[in-house]
């Protein structure tokens, strides 16, 4: 196993002490993981914080059986060691990577195919915020939802990590972007990212907004609950609703006749439990289609705030307060 430098036996990590609020994230010294076949070990510089980390911390999003129990679905840093069978990366390479878990630590393991080069001219801080949202948005909006240039795209939660990425990718594809958010300040941020209209959902009805423009061809939704029948009404004929979370619950009464008569599609996915092969394919799609968007200045992470690794509880308070706009990162190395 080629080494960049002598690796320590143990590292600082933030563990989930027990299921609960942000305060259950506690610093601990744990063994530095050893890369197996096809894996790389990353010396973590920054770790992205995502809403699913808070779900995992609360005991509602168990890691896959083979994943690290530590939270953290994305990071940036330098390759510290490579396992057998890895040819693309060498120790010292700057990468960002989608992780099955384990990002809240000084070292993290990633399948080598789930790492991407840090985009030219981008810092490690921003690069740490790319993988989780880019993999999720591309696989759901483009591969499942089939969004094309000229189509009308509605994304709820426009200032979330996911939302800020979805607005920019959809604009870069040539789609018309509509969004909802919980305050006027957040709506202004969405317009600044290229949305054509941004609606404060406390004050107005997104179904009416979409009716005025002929309905949405694709909707990306994380709210669920009462939004489900309203999303169906907001779709144009042949429209596609892509569900990536249910912040307000997964169960509703829905009249499916409308799906049949107007040829609608309801789909959705969650990234983490998908196979390594599926994630490798998404990574190649990102490198082909999304990294060039970054290179030409059409996409950059919207940065909200940064916390040191051992202040991960404060980062979780922030993401759960919903006061943030864009991405929250932990500074690790
Ligand atoms: N399926 C997947 O593979 C996958 C992957 C990553 C993330 N996700 C999900 O995608 C969502 C966004 O993730 P993230 O990391 O970007 O989180 P985030 O930045 O915390 O975003 C959550 C957003 O949801 C909005 N929101 C919360 N409650 C709402 C409500 N009742 N009605 C409307 N909007 C509401 C909040 O903004 P407002 O103030 O505007 O309400 C906030 O911007 C999360 O639900 C997460 O679990 C799914």
Write the layout of secondary structure elements.
Blueprint: E1 10-16, E2 25-31, E3 39-49, H1 51-57, E4 74-82, E5 94-98, E6 107-111, E7 115-117, H2 124-127, H3 131-144, E8 152-155, H4 161-173, E9 176-181, H5 184-192, E10 197-200, H6 206-212, E11 216-221, H7 227-234, E12 235-243, H8 257-261, E13 265-268, H9 276-295, E14 303-308, H10 312-321, E15 327-331
Parallel strand pairs: 8-9, 8-11, 9-10, 11-12, 12-13, 14-15
Antiparallel strand pairs: 1-2, 3-4, 3-6, 3-15, 4-5, 5-7
Helix pairs in contact: 3-4, 3-9, 6-7
Bound molecules: NADP nicotinamide-adenine-dinucleotide phosphate.
Q: Supply the number of helical segments.
A: 10
Low-pLDDT segments: none
Bound ligands: NADP nicotinamide-adenine-dinucleotide phosphate
Q: Tell me the number of strands.
A: 15
The computed structural class is: alpha/beta
Q: How far apart are the first and last residues' alpha carbons, in Å? A: 22 Å
Rg estimate, integer Å: 20 Å
Strand fraction equals 25-35%
The helix content, as a percent range, equals 25-40%
The H/E string reads: EEEHEEEEHHEHEHEHEHEHEHEHE
The shape, in one word, is globular
Mean pLDDT: 96
The major beta sheet can be summarized as: 7 strands, mixed
Task: Describe the fold and architecture.
Strand 12 (235-243), helix 8 and strand 13 form a beta-alpha-beta unit. Strands 3, 4, 5, 6, 7, 14 and 15 form a seven-stranded mixed sheet that branches. The protein has a six-stranded parallel sheet with strand order 10-9-8-11-12-13, with helices on both faces. A two-stranded antiparallel sheet has the order 1-2. The protein is built from ten helices and 15 strands. The chain has 333 residues and is an alpha/beta fold. Helix 3 crosses helix 9 and helix 6 (206-212) packs parallel to helix 7. The chain binds NADP nicotinamide-adenine-dinucleotide phosphate. Residues 50-52, 132, 136, 156-157, 159-162, 181-182, 186, 201, 222-223, 244-245, 247-248, 269-271, 319, 322 line the site of NADP nicotinamide-adenine-dinucleotide phosphate. The site of NADP nicotinamide-adenine-dinucleotide phosphate has 26 residues, from helix 1, helix 3 and helix 4.
